[in-house]
Design goal:
This protein is mainly beta and 345 residues long. It has one domain. The protein is 14% helix and 47% strand. It contains four helices and 17 strands. The strands form two sheets. Strands 2-1-3-5-7-9-11-13-15-17 form a ten-stranded mixed sheet, covered by helices on one side. A seven-stranded parallel sheet has the order 4-6-8-10-12-14-16, covered by helices on one side. The longest helix is centred in the C-terminal third of the chain and has 17 residues. It is globular.
């Protein structure tokens, strides 16, 4: 069951539902009764993307159609824009990026909701990182509040490769951002990070699966989130250490703030270990802001709402600071500040 299959066949019964364990908190079948018509091509102006000024090349995909494309550079910075400019219609798109052995590429990926909204979008990515190559992927997701979107990235690492990822999202009516990594061990290094900042009735599901298949692999994962109003955040992280993948070093952390009695966070970190001589750990915390810290801030003349925003910004800031690309780190800081109603500093 998948959104891609449902769009291809037009059969809503192919959508994943709460009966599917990995989709229990992001039920699509219970939400979507019929598959909408295909989104039409949009030839109007979609404006500038959040990363255009930072890129050596840009690929623009609107409603699933490649509207502007440049050859992906072997090294440097590539901006990849997925724009949904639709009104209650559906579209999907696929894109592949290959980083040649020894090369370094930064992929700046954005999801931009425009138009009247209510769209259904499915994106599939195939990312391949060659031997000794490096790929940093930063994903900024800005869907409309009434959208339903799924993005799935399949990542294949070669020996000695480095892949780092940071996802920043404000959610949608239903939203799932999934990353599946085939980790060869062999001194390859992986970092998977994420931030979700949700309010209203927005929903975001950050799901990852890393499969360590060989000796001497490293995975570091850190996701932080905040939910307010009636929002719902979902984190599912699974690390599988296959037989023979000894000396794997894998660490996963998820930490969330709940700022409303009606908001919800569902978390399911998993370690499935079938090898000896490994160092693996996971941590998960869900709580509220420190009221004592808020009190101290108010005693110093800081209004309560600003104090709460400052503490939340500091809470997720650890993830932002792990972004390696300097200019993109500044964009991420500004995005966090804007989502929290603060001016970027």
């Amino acid at each position: 069951m998948s959104l891609a299959l449902a769009l291809k066949t037009g059969d809503a019964s192919r959508l994943p539902s709460r009966r599917d364990e990995d989709w229990r908190w992001t039920d699509l079948r219970g939400l979507i009764r019929t598959i909408p018509a295909e989104s039409p091509a949009f030839l109007g102006d979609v404006g500038a993307g959040p990363f255009d000024a930072l890129a050596d090349a840009t690929v623009l995909i609107v409603n699933g159609w490649v509207r502007e494309g440049e050859p992906a550079p072997e090294a440097g910075v590539l901006a990849l824009r997925f724009v949904s400019h639709a009104d209650a219609t559906a579209h999907d798109a696929e894109f592949a990026v290959t980083v040649a052995p020894g090369q370094t590429l930064t992929l700046l990926e954005s999801y931009e909701g425009q138009g009247a909204g209510g769209y259904l979008a499915n994106i599939g990515l195939d990312l391949s990182v060659g031997e000794g190559a490096r790929l940093e992927r930063i994903v900024l997701v800005d869907d409309l509040a009434d959208a339903v979107t799924v993005s799935t990235a399949d990542v294949a690492l070669a020996p000695g490769a480095t892949y780092t990822q940071t996802i920043l999202t404000s959610g949608a009516r239903r939203q799932r951002l999934e990353t599946r990594v085939a980790h060869p061990g062999a001194h390859a290094e992986l970092r998977l990070d994420g931030i979700y900042l949700l309010d209203g009735q927005r929903h975001a599901d950050l799901t990852t699966q890393v499969t360590h298949g060989g000796v001497d692999g490293v995975t570091s994962q850190l996701t932080k989130g905040m939910v307010a109003d009636q929002a719902r955040g979902v984190f599912q992280g699974r690390i599988i250490v296959q037989p023979g993948a000894d000396q794997t070093d894998a660490r996963m952390g998820h930490h969330a703030l709940i700022l409303s009695d009606r908001a919800e966070v569902d978390a399911k970190p998993e370690l499935l270990i079938f090898a000896d001589d490994v160092s693996c750990a996971h941590g998960n915390t869900i709580g509220a802001l420190d009221e004592q810290a808020i009190f101290y801030a108010r005693q110093r003349g800081i209004p309560e709402l600003e104090a709460r925003a400052m503490l939340t910004e500091a809470f997720v800031g650890e993830v932002v600071e792990r972004i390696e690309h300097d200019a993109t780190r500044d964009v991420a800081r500004a995005w966090v500040a804007q989502r929290l109603g603060r001016s970027a500093t």
